[in-house]
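User: I'll paste a sequence; please echo it back and then give the predicted structure.

Assistant: Echoing your sequence first, then the prediction.
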Amino acid sequence: MDNIPEVDREESPAALANRLGLPFKNLLLLSRSLTHRSYINEHPEALEDNERLEFLGDAVLDFLTGAWLYNHFPEMAEGELTRMRSALVRTEQLAGFARALDLGPALRLGRGEIAANGRNRDVLLCAAFEALIGALYLQAGIETVIRFVHPLLEKAAAALVLEPDTFDPKSRLQEWSQAHRYGIPQYVTVHTSGPDHERKFEVEVRLNEHVFGRGTGPSKAAAERAAARNALETIEKS
């Protein structure tokens, strides 16, 4: 998804707040949550990027997601709850939330990032979504964040419950490999390509020195999940 080009569009913070019904009286705070450091490099009048808000939003999302899962899945064991939470707050999923909200046009990016299709990059969309949550928490409090986030979690969690192997293939492969005395899977990065803003990783997963699966992705973590998923598919067919 990261390398699909699109015509660049821009949306102002005020327009975004109006479209999503966000209660921002302080539009500077909302604007900061959408500001990537590449924009700061080209616009010195913009005083701060979104990295501190991203840090705060990450912590808020971890807590709210854990609490939501605890209350909605009372029979689920701790290990499954942990895996579900990890799946719901991973980069690709949060980028998916950002796409569902159409945050891309509102991102404030430098010219280089815009040219590199930054409005559609998972890592930038994920960071902006986390920063938006941090800003919303500061502006309106935890109850407002809950009302905003819970509908997103409900839809994503429903899909994960229906297809558990898609959200945590690494854990499921490890469970299988240990049950069959293969030990712990080893993930080896065999190839890296692309410029810094559009990296592509190729990973092999090995059990007892034998290659069981291969996968590619825009990060090592994504490539490892793809390799584990490929291994599980191979095992099911054998």
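The chain has two domains: 13-164, 169-237. The CA atoms of residues 153 and 173 lie 25 Å apart.
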